[in-house]
């Protein structure tokens, strides 16, 4: 199964902000949308960085509440690992576990085309395990 199959199920809309957005604004969006990370993009939807709840906690832990007045561009991770629609889910799982992060943006023609979270991957894995168990059950009962 590929990244495209997950995107076909969940959609391709991605929540993104500009690098000048203050960290307080990022927290508001994270809370309102119930998500764990936001992409930071330029005017052409090219990825400039990613900010996750972990970065927010780190910034406040280091600098105190004043960090909330920083632009997200000062706090985000700039070197973003991405994938393409034809990548397998296993590829994405490998990227997440090697990079120790829970979000992988999908890129098409240099622009953001979706976002895969660890929750999406877990959902896919559970469906896959259930399907394998079902195949095994029907094999045993018809053998
Ligand atoms: P997360 O586990 O996604 O909350 O992110 C943990 C850390 O990895 C944070 O510092 C994020 O900014 C960073 N991060 C998240 N996703 C990616 C990614 N796809 N590529 C590089 N860094 C990332």
Describe, in short, the structure shown.
By secondary structure, the chain is of the alpha+beta class. It is built from five helices and five strands, in the order αβαββααββα. The model has no long low-confidence stretch (mean pLDDT 95).
Structure description:
The protein is an alpha+beta fold. It has one domain: CBS-domain, CATH 3.10.580.10. It is built from five helices and five strands. The protein has helices at residues 3-10, 23-33, 53-63, 89-99, 118-142, and strands at 16-17, 37-41, 47-52, 103-108, 111-117. Strands 1-2-3 form a three-stranded mixed β-sheet. A two-stranded antiparallel ribbon has the order 4-5. A hairpin with a 5-residue loop joins strand 2 and strand 3 (47-52). It starts with a helix and ends with a helix. The structure holds adenosine monophosphate (AMP). InterPro entries: CBS_dom, CBS_dom_sf, CBSX3_CBS_dom, Diverse_CBS-Domain. Pfam families: CBS.
List keywords for this structure.
binds adenosine monophosphate; single chain; 5 strands; two-stranded antiparallel ribbon; CBS-domain; 143 residues; alpha+beta; 3-stranded mixed β-sheet; elongated
- N→C terminal distance: 28 Å
Oligomer: single chain
Percent of residues in beta strands?
15-25%
Mean pLDDT: 95
Number of strands: 5
Domain CBS: 10-70, 76-134
Keywords: CBS domain
Organism: Roseibium polysiphoniae
Protein name: CBS domain-containing protein
């Amino acid at each position: 199964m590929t990244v495209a199959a997950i995107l076909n199920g969940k959609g391709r809309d991605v929540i993104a902000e500009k690098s000048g957005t203050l960290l307080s604004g990022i927290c508001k969006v994270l809370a309102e949308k119930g998500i764990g990370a936001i992409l930071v993009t330029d005017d052409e939807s090219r990825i400039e960085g990613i900010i996750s709840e972990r970065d927010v906690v780190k910034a406040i832990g280091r600098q105190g509440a004043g960090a909330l007045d920083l632009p997200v561009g000062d706090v985000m991770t700039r070197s973003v690992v991405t994938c393409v629609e034809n990548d397998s889910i296993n590829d994405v799982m490998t990227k997440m576990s090697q990079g120790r992060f829970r979000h992988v943006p999908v890129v098409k023609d240099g622009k953001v085309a979706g976002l895969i979270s660890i929750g999406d991957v877990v959902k896919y894995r559970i469906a896959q395990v259930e399907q394998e168990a079902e195949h095994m059950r029907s094999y045993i009962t018809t053998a």
